[in-house]
Amino acid sequence: MSIILTLGNLQYPIYPKEKADIMQEIVNTPEPPYYAVIAPAVLSDDISGYFEMALKIMDLANDVEGFLGIESSFQDRFVLSITYWTSLEAIDAWKNNSHHMIAKNTAKQRWFDRFFTRIAKVERDY
Predict the structure, then answer these.
(1) Where are the domains of the chain?
(2) Euclidean distance between CA atoms 5 and 114, whole angstroms
């Protein structure tokens, strides 16, 4: 089963529904401190293949020691993804992962009109 994501006048199937649902859940994080990588982006007109790549990258991130989860939200062409990590070393391992680097470069060149990354230390949550 799949779901359809609507962005403006465009519709994109997301496969499989179970994986797409995971990206729109609140992550169950441990007691602080831990880290958040905040990645807002504005999508370009051509995002064919973007969502499939995002799901593949999420699968790869799950195998990185220190990855806690991801929260994502879409509104028209604005995407906000927040990943949670146990340490800065885990974030660096992910940043330097060859598959992630290829996906990020493709996103910057093809799928994103604007993109930025912020890293924050979570010291308190409730």
Answers:
(1) 3-122
(2) 20
* CA distances to 14, 47, 53, 98, 120 from 86, in Å: 29, 31, 24, 20, 12
pTM recorded for the entire structure: 0.82
- With tokens 């146990």, the residue in question is 86
**Residues in Cβ contact with 111 at an 8 Å cutoff, skipping those fewer than 6 apart:** 41, 43, 44, 46, 47, 49, 50
Looking at residue 25, what is its pLDDT? 85
What is the CATH number that goes with domain 3-122? 3.30.70.100
The residue whose two tokens read 């496969």 is 15
Using 50, 70 and 90 to split pLDDT, how confident is the model at 74? confident
pLDDT interval class at 23 (50, 70, 90): low
